[in-house]
Specification:
It holds the Pfam family SKI. It is an enzyme of class 2 (transferase). By secondary structure, the chain is of the alpha/beta class. Helix content is 55%, strand content 12%. The protein has a five-stranded parallel sheet with strand order 2-3-1-4-5, with helices on both faces. It binds adenosine-5'-diphosphate, shikimate-3-phosphate and magnesium ion.
Amino acid sequence: MKPTFLIGFMGSGKSTIAKLLADDFVDLDTVIVEKIGMSISDFFEQFGEAKFRELETETLKSVSTTHQIISTGGGIVMSEENRQFLKDADVNVVYLEGDFDKLYARILADKENIRPIAISRTREELFDIYQHRADLYDAVATHKICVTDKTPEEIVKEIQL
Ligand SMILES: Nc1ncnc2c1ncn2[C@@H]1O[C@H](COP(=O)(O)OP(=O)(O)O)[C@@H](O)[C@H]1O
Ligand SMILES: O=C(O)C1=C[C@@H](OP(=O)(O)O)[C@@H](O)[C@H](O)C1
Ligand SMILES: [Mg+2]
């Protein structure tokens, strides 16, 4: 089977669903955190977003041959290079699409994972980012699943590749 990348906005459940889809999964953010030896929010504070994006691209390119299921960070589609990589690779790209306010509530409630992109912005600013990114997720996705009001188990069942 082709490798499968999960994409979508923060809080859509990419990391949660990847773990349930197969034992052979990897989360790009987890790989990056292992590389940098600190949390993503500390890294943003010390080195800035641009440096994080460089690491993200490098990590994206290294995993498609080593794992079956790959959860990405919500900003993966911001880079043209990353979008091109996902389009050119012989892989499935599953877009987990959800209602903004439901995702926003999850992001705020998730104290285990502080997302610097979200905490530094108002709801309105983040909604603009959500709308902008929605077109980019659509442009690279090979499959699209609505996750609003579904349990992780229901979403896993829907991902039939
Ligand atoms: N389908 C779901 N229903 C309810 N809560 C969910 C669902 N998917 C994920 N969550 C919760 O939402 C938060 C963000 O999930 P996560 O998998 O980290 O999303 P992402 O990786 O897309 O940012 C976590 O607290 C997780 O437990
Ligand atoms: O949307 C973004 O720009 C980001 C999303 C995060 O991943 P999740 O989508 O898994 O929360 C993480 O990569 C980083 O905080 C930046
Ligand atoms: Mg995640």
